[in-house]
């Protein structure tokens, strides 16, 4: 099992119950869509997995490790297991495409040899070798998201979390991003993608976990977007 949530609840200090006794198991190599209306608890789930928030009850096990018991000093090591992409790309504006990816490797203290070759291999995967020396503002939204995906996987994470990765993109760019995420998954990375994109979910025929008010109300093997 790559990710396991056992009896996980999250009650924020203001009393809002964002997640209520969640049980969820995700196998190594699985692809899971998480869907649900606004406020259903999707972002909270991601924050718990990244250990940006602590669960109120329950256990969260990632790659065999109970992250609710993790020492503060072990959090960076835990986060290196997870690559993340967001709706708003979050590239560093003053660094080139190459430097954005290089920086992610440096920060992770990555022991990967031949940094340059490795950066070009992830750029090749997203079809942007020719943009290595461009700055983010010189790229389209779709291209920026491709860079952000290259950066997310450069340290070979076990899990890719994509938080509405197509939220700012038109249908063609959305579909291109979806294909890259699917390729990343086929190469063995477990993928958890939060999305509101009904057309994409319905076309991909992957596992779909549906949240309503902090509860999993549906978990379908080859599911559809149905809220
Ligand atoms: N830091 C916080 N403090 C208090 N309440 C919060 C906090 N973060 C989220 N909430 C509340 O918890 C509930 C779940 O929020 P969450 O952001 O997880 O939903 P979501 O499914 O990601 O929604 P969206 O699709 O709008 O991003 C909501 O009622 C929200 O108002």
Q: If you had to describe this structure to a student in words, what would you say it looks like?
A:
- The chain has one domain: 3-Layer(aba) Sandwich (Rossmann fold).
- Helix content is 31%, strand content 26%.
- It is built from 7 helices and 10 strands.
- A 6-stranded mixed sheet has the order 6-7-8-3-9-10, with helices on both faces. A 4-stranded antiparallel sheet has the order 2-1-4-5, covered by helices on one side.
- The longest helix is centred in the C-terminal third of the chain and has 16 residues, at 171-186.
- The chain is globular, with a radius of gyration of 17 Å.
- 38% of the residues are buried.
- The mean pLDDT is 96.
- The structure holds adenosine-5'-triphosphate (ATP).
- The site of adenosine-5'-triphosphate (ATP) has 12 residues, from helix 1.
- It is a peripheral membrane protein.
- Keywords: ATP-binding, Cell cycle, Cell division, Cell membrane, Membrane, Nucleotide-binding.
Mean pLDDT: 96
Distance between the termini: 27 Å
Largest sheet: 6 strands, mixed
Number of DSSP helical runs: 7
Bound molecules: adenosine-5'-triphosphate
Q: Please mark out the parts with pLDDT under 50 across 5 or more consecutive residues, or reply none.
A: none
Write down the CATH topology. Rossmann fold
Rg from alpha-carbon coordinates: 17 Å
Compressed to H and E, one letter per element, the order equals EEEHEEHEHHHEHEHEE
Query: In terms of structural class, how would the helical and strand content be classed?
Result: alpha/beta
User: Any idea what the CATH architecture is?
Assistant: 3-Layer(aba) Sandwich
Strand content: 25-35%
- Shape estimate: globular
CATH superfamily: P-loop containing nucleotide triphosphate hydrolases
